[in-house]
Write a structure and sequence with these properties.
Order of helices and strands: EHEEEHHEHEEEHHHHHHHHHHH
InterPro entries: DUF4272
Radius of gyration: 24 Å
Protein name: DUF4272 domain-containing protein
Largest sheet: 8 strands, antiparallel
Structural class: alpha+beta
Pfam families: DUF4272
Strand order of the largest sheet: 2-3-4-5-1-6-7-8
Number of strands: 8
Helix content: 40-55%
Distance between the termini: 35 Å
Strand content: 5-15%
Shape: globular
Length: 392
């Protein structure tokens, strides 16, 4: 192998250059005037070897970078694998990347050279793409290969807080909200960290419209009902005919995302994806709360009341009935819950990273799905439903 690519999510590109200099500190390192190209030279008795590292930045080469990321996303999204959770997290990571470092060696890379590249990756929380189509984490472990193979049980998405929250202005409202959330977590015996940033402030938040929330709620409920029937062993064709009748009843044909439409049309839905979509009841529950159907979002320690959730839609009878009864909660209420779940989710992720049980009685699956729904409600990163991230 003579080449590979390092991908990073980081605002300050100079940190990548610093990591390169540190990793190859015993060799000659020269950077171009614009800092985009770094050449590492290793002199030997009968010649020399060079490694050229060229940096591409999303903010400087937007079109080319976007095309590259889309191609990589498309490549990994089509891979069939039993490691669906790892794949989903990798796809999230790909969408968050903003720096690519193309690495080309004048000779075949030996293990020592590659370990230096991994040292750079570890320093900047990067991932490494190989010509074989394999993506490695910063430790050199296989995240996902072209055949669907992986060496990981889970993968932690890493996004620079500079990128996530650099556009979020600190105000009295979001600082106070953060303070109240942290105090609540402490009272519940759940770990907190002071440097976890604030979320968008009341003055700048733009909540999804009532039409958007109602339509997404209906779609999530119907997808979860359909997935639940299949998960319980019902005949796919019978379940499809049943759900198509409800879709027609609520005029919901246009409410589904691309992923949801594909699932509803599969002759034999994948078992793992089916289970994942049953969890959409938890997202639906959050939207029912946002629409006033659920009085309070209780502590996320157990799954929602599925039958009550279904009944909210069933008793409405049709789209108009469901829409007319709904009253969207205030921006402040929604932001309170979004900030709280953000900090709950950090506690869950922190426990998982350290191979520890989640403290305080949190159900990490419930937390994750609530986080997804609330981030969609507050337009986090302005992402569509299928691309909503739950960064911590």
């Amino acid at each position: 192998m003579t080449q590979c690519t390092l991908y990073v999510s980081m605002k300050h590109v100079e940190k990548v250059t610093e990591a390169i200099r540190e990793s190859f500190r015993d060799q000659t390192v020269e950077a171009s005037a614009d800092g985009c190209t770094v050449t590492v030279t290793r002199k030997r008795l009968f010649g020399k070897r060079t490694i050229t590292l060229r940096t591409m930045r999303e903010d400087k080469e937007t079109e080319a970078f976007t095309q590259m990321i889309r191609g990589m996303y498309g490549f990994f999204s089509q891979i069939e694998t039993v490691h669906e959770q790892v794949k989903e997290k990798l796809l999230m990571q790909i969408t968050a990347l903003n720096i690519a470092v193309g690495i080309v060696s004048s000779h075949e890379m030996d293990d020592e050279t590659f370990q230096r590249i991994l040292a750079i990756a570890e320093s900047v929380n990067g991932i490494v793409f190989l010509p074989s189509g394999e993506m490695l984490d910063k430790k050199g472990q296989l995240i996902l290969g072209p055949g669907g193979e992986s060496e990981l049980e889970d993968f932690l998405v890493t996004v620079s807080t500079d990128l996530i929250d650099g556009h979020v202005r600190q105000t009295a409202s979001n600082e106070e909200r953060k303070r109240q959330s942290m105090e609540r977590l402490r009272q519940q015996g759940i770990p907190v960290i002071e440097h976890l940033p604030v979320i968008v402030a009341d003055e700048e938040a733009v909540i999804r419209s009532k039409d958007e929330i109602v339509q997404r709620a209906i779609a999530l409920c119907l997808v979860a009902v359909y997935a639940g029937g299949i998960a319980e062993g019902e005949e796919v064709q019978e379940e499809r005919e049943f759900i198509e009748g409800i879709i027609s009843q609520y005029g919901a044909a246009g409410f589904f995302t691309e992923r949801e439409r594909a699932f509803l049309g599969e002759e034999q839905p994948d078992r793992t994806e089916t289970i994942q979509l049953v969890w959409m009841y938890e997202c639906y529950w959050v939207l029912l709360w946002a629409l006033g159907y659920v009085e309070e979002l209780d502590f996320p320690g157990q799954i929602c009341d599925v039958q009550m959730a279904i009944d909210c839609l069933k008793e409405a009878g049709d789209y108009d009935g469901f829409y007319q009864k709904a009253v969207v909660r205030s921006t402040s209420e929604i932001l309170d819950q979004a900030d709280l779940i953000y900090r709950y989710d950090w506690a869950c992720v922190n426990a998982r990273i350290n191979n520890q049980p989640v403290e305080g009685g949190l159900n990490d699956e419930v937390v994750l799905e609530r986080h997804r729904a609330l981030n969609w409600l507050i337009r986090y990163m302005d992402a569509d439903w299928d691309d909503v991230r739950t960064d911590t």
